[in-house]
Amino acid sequence: MTLVYLALGSNVGERETHLDEARRRLQDHGARLLRASTVIESEPFGMPDQPLYLNQVVEAEWDGSPRELLATAKQVEDEVGRTPSFRWGPREIDVDILLFGDEHLAEPDLVIPHPGLLDRPFVLAPLGELRPDILGRR
To answer: 20 to 30 A Cα–Cα from 24, which one of 32, 37, 60, 119?
Structure first.
């Protein structure tokens, strides 16, 4: 099992319901959720003219590869009802892999640690709540 950290975000529709549903569906697909940060509200990133986001980070154990976790994250987004949008556009749910154990991966569609991790306060604050020690190591 690998310890992973996932960022959840929603700014369309029933935001809290979307976060709840994403957590449930991640578990349904094999992620063993251990802890979840406080849900915070934040300004949108990259495209300011849209509703505020609710953001949360979850800590989970995953018994598969990073690529399998990416496929699961995309499937959960589909199941929760994410509709196609544009980069940094509004979304019902977003599930991003922040960290996958100590792995470092750089592929066209999957970079771990998440490339925007250190630039996004709405991710750093909830991650720091769960693992205050981890931010000094990265």
So the answer is: 119
What is the pLDDT at residue 138? 47
Give pLDDT tens digits for 38-57.
Answer: 999 998 887 888 999 999 99
Report the sign of the C-alpha dihedral through residues 24, 29, 32, 37, in that order: negative
Residues contacting 84, CB < 8 A, separation 6+: none
Catalytic residues: 82, 91, 94, 96
Cα within 13 Å of Cα(10), Cβ side: 22
d(C-alpha 114, C-alpha 7), whole Å? 10
